[in-house]
Amino acid sequence: MSLGDKISNKAEELGGKAKETAGDATGNEELRAEGQTDQAKAGLKGAVENVKDAVGDAADKVRDVFKK
To answer: Is 15:21 a contact under the CB 8 Å cutoff?
Structure first.
């Protein structure tokens, strides 16, 4: 995962948390739910990036084995 992706995902997560908190404070269930959705999307993006990193690392290891 690139640094830019990590920053973007963290910003989306924090924005979602802020929306959720604001929704809680004002009793706005729609805003609260939107915040939770934003946090879930950021988490999913992070998970996908982690899988892509793991697959890339595994491919590198396989490539190294065949180079020997």
So the answer is: no
